[in-house]
Amino acid sequence: MTEMSRESLTIVDCTLRDGGYHTNWEFGRSLVEEYLAVCPRLGIDVVELGYVRFTANRAGPYGQLPKGLTANLRTALPTDHRLRFAAMVDAEDFACVPGAEAGRRLAEKLATGALPVDVVRIAVRYDKMAAVAEAVAAVRDAGFRVCLNLMQIDLASTREVVQCLAATRDMGSLEALYLADSLGSLTPARTIELVSAFCAGQAAPVGIHAHDNQGLALHNTQVAIETGARWVDGTVHGMGRGAGNTRTEQLLVLLGSGPDELQPLLDLIVRHFHPLMEDYRWGASGLYVLAGLHRIHPTYVQRIERNATLGPEEKLRAMAFLAGSAAHRFTVDTLDYALGSIRD
Amino acid sequence: MTEMSRESLTIVDCTLRDGGYHTNWEFGRSLVEEYLAVCPRLGIDVVELGYVRFTANRAGPYGQLPKGLTANLRTALPTDHRLRFAAMVDAEDFACVPGAEAGRRLAEKLATGALPVDVVRIAVRYDKMAAVAEAVAAVRDAGFRVCLNLMQIDLASTREVVQCLAATRDMGSLEALYLADSLGSLTPARTIELVSAFCAGQAAPVGIHAHDNQGLALHNTQVAIETGARWVDGTVHGMGRGAGNTRTEQLLVLLGSGPDELQPLLDLIVRHFHPLMEDYRWGASGLYVLAGLHRIHPTYVQRIERNATLGPEEKLRAMAFLAGSAAHRFTVDTLDYALGSIRD
To answer: Are B246 and B317 members of one domain?
Structure first.
């Protein structure tokens, strides 16, 4: 594939949601207003605004939607825009509310914001789908389009993929079913294998949400599209958890956007996102490549990279400990053990 | 293509040469020793050590080979290594020496270094090949294998590509003929078009030297291989001029290397190259994407990005000036005009 036709694709920009892992979901007002003004000019179809949660926590406004969704944002958008808006729910958050009530509660919450969210993306580990089935139905019954983002899907065995797809079929209509490369470990070959299985094994359009630990986010997104994926995620300048995501600007270049079309996005990057990158340092690094290869959860790497007291040798020793610990899930205890291992 | 067979490929790592644009070709002794010790373990075929020049200038040792090639480096290598070594000559440097003497002079120079350079890569703009024909013959006659790296090839029209390939055929045997994406502007479609023409139009193996302005370096390298390219360049952690190059570690992942094989390289990155990246900040940024789209010479961007007195709006205005100036070549005057335009 070279430049790809984009008419058949739904392009989701999830900068505010996935990028929030670096800023604790705080974003400056002018950044968000300029971002929203730019998205319709690029051919973005869906903007994911952040997380919506059933319980209060310490996340900033875009981690607790509809906080942050002010009338100013609505007026920042051109009146004839055709953007749709999405919010993500972490499956574990459904534990805080009876499944049958999830839809109504979400609808009530999101109705108080100034932007009309109609897509709810549920992030769930691929082997935990049974736990969210009731909530999925309730969210759909409340009038939302539901996407499932299957986290850590690269860890799934062939048998587990089959089970997962069977569970999906039992859930009824989905807007999209996503492979989420949470650990940044997908290779192109594995992406093709999984997208093929997802396309063949259920009815919903297949999506890909890639992370860039190994510089393969764009590449995996491209082979996913070639294999039949129709929903694709990007973030501005790649801003996202850990090593970050497929870069929206690069995805658009690949899809044929020219300099004039991209200029407002590149302006936005130079004004707002590159300075953020200088502070938060997402992007492929040696540690993130290691994390991808050993399927280590990205939060370990974010914590280790930001720890100014650690030198390179100490970071490598901590990563070696985690590589030997099947550290797919983040726990503070495991991080403490890993940091303790440095001194052993 | 997914994971690719690598037996048919010649992998060139040109970190010390292309990365030298950031450090003025100064590299610490332990970095180079560890780098050379690691390369044979990765399946790298050729290590490009730096530039060799006919005149003294202000470049550090790896910009003036054989300076820097100490006996220590030789002893850093495992005794059974099968690496070959390359040096690059800038075509403009041939102006300092009669073409017929170029080979003998290079042979004399390089013979005084501790590592046996047998590949000479001549970097020449695609439309200046006539000027180096005599020197190419002389370098080959002196016993070197000669690669031609055709700079800024993306600017060539169809007619110019045809002329360029005809000139190549007249030059006799070449070790490889490279597409060099000097401006970081190649798209996958254009890469396929050019590699196809290069493969069909002359006898030498085709190579690709990619820059990562638009995050497409790895991607372009991959489609080049699929289309028939057999020599591929990478640099450790992407360290190279402007936005940098295809990352050797990511290329190796794509070619099927696993965690154990890559560990020494990732150690090297964490110890040496990631700290350098923190200082020199190569890698895709908004300005480099702009430069790629508008085919602006990377030196402008390096200078603008490093200018601490410029804010984002000023950088954008300077880039807009350069975009309107067909700034494929770097001149200090044009940079001055661009910086002057900020105040107009």
So the answer is: no
